[in-house]
Amino acid sequence: MPEQSGEKSFDATPHRRQQARDKGQVAYSQDLGSAAILLVAAGLLKGFGPGIVNAAAELINRNVGEVGTLTGDRAILTGEVEKVLSGAGFALLPLMVLLMMAAAASSVFQVGFLFVPERLVPDFSRISPVAGIKRIVSLQGVMRLGFGLLKVLLVVSVAGIAIWLRRDEIMFAGALTVSQISMLLVEVTVSTLLWVGGALLVLALFDFAFQKWKHEQDLKMTHQEVKEEMKNMQGDPQIIARRRQVQRQMVMNRMSGAVPQADVVITNPTELAVAIKYEHGQMAAPVVVAKGAGVLAQRIRRLALENNIPIVERKPLAQLLYKEVEINHPVPDGSYAAVAEVLAYVYQLKGKKVPGANRRAA
């Protein structure tokens, strides 16, 4: 039995999931982020690559075209090179920002917005050589190594296929101009990145699904853990059950004293029961002395029968009084006429009169 063996066969509770999330224990695939960045980079190169190549060529021609006429002044040459590098940096800055946004979007897609300050604190146990060797030789470490080798083999194979498909263009690149070679290089690079990125994306989706499954398995709880969490969250179930039993007993005791003093019990006919009491000259209006549903309604009916209290079936009135009137509170003005009619009927059966109730009803 799972309860006896301690097997984790129960799904994690929301509280346990939140605790794990607060500690940074979430399902996350690094490969999914890498594939997203690679595909975004390929898309950016496809859209902006030719423009960047032309801008770089123009920048080099403008700043380094006269290098041959320089008199050997190293400072002048260094300044020209710095201009080229700074210009290239400014040109590539928007692309780098977009790549960073893609990486952030990948993380948000997987785990949402999550900030764990504890992860910023250095954990010196992770730099222990013994712990590192144990992680490497563990089953999880071997599986991670195998998965890494599979990724390398996949990347090399897909990249080789992508380049092989354009082998004719590459072989005849010697007859092209420098500008045409640059454009071809961009096209081949983009094509290869798209192929590799697509293959990595498929692999990363499988990895993300595995990480989700493994995370769910790690979060599963034993029967004893579920009991302990319920005890911590809501209190000891035995104490709660005992408290409810005492409360029910108190209600029963109160009914045992109140129902025999009632004038009539209005029912629904079996689901609800409301005991009404009215003393002319002492009460301004009839008062609900007891009410209940289900088992409590049956208890009220039984007490009424044992004490010869009339039971009158008025379904809408019983529902209204049970819903709107608390115990030991008078009936509302809107229901007074209907209650007075029931009281008049009951007192008529007993050969009594209720002048005050009749006048109020009139």
UniProtKB/TrEMBL annotation:
GO cellular component terms, A-Z: plasma membrane
Residue ranges, annotated region (Disordered): 1-24
Entry keyword set: Bacterial flagellum biogenesis, Bacterial flagellum protein export, Cell membrane, Cell projection, Cilium, Flagellum, Membrane, Protein transport, Transmembrane, Transmembrane helix, Transport
Domain of life, per lineage: Bacteria
Residue intervals passing through the bilayer: 26-45, 91-116, 145-165, 185-210
Matches recorded under Gene3D superfamilies: 6.10.250.2080, secretion proteins EscU
Subcellular location: Cell membrane
GO biological process: bacterial-type flagellum assembly; protein secretion
Primary localization: membrane
Membrane topology annotation: Multi-pass membrane protein
Pfam family, one: Bac_export_2
Record's function text: Required for formation of the rod structure in the basal body of the flagellar apparatus. Together with FliI and FliH, may constitute the export apparatus of flagellin.
Family assignment from sequence similarity: Belongs to the type III secretion exporter family.
Name of the protein this chain belongs to: Flagellar biosynthetic protein FlhB
The species this protein was found in: Aeoliella straminimaris
Top-level taxonomy: Bacteria, Pseudomonadati, Planctomycetota, Planctomycetia, Pirellulales
Gene behind this protein: flhB
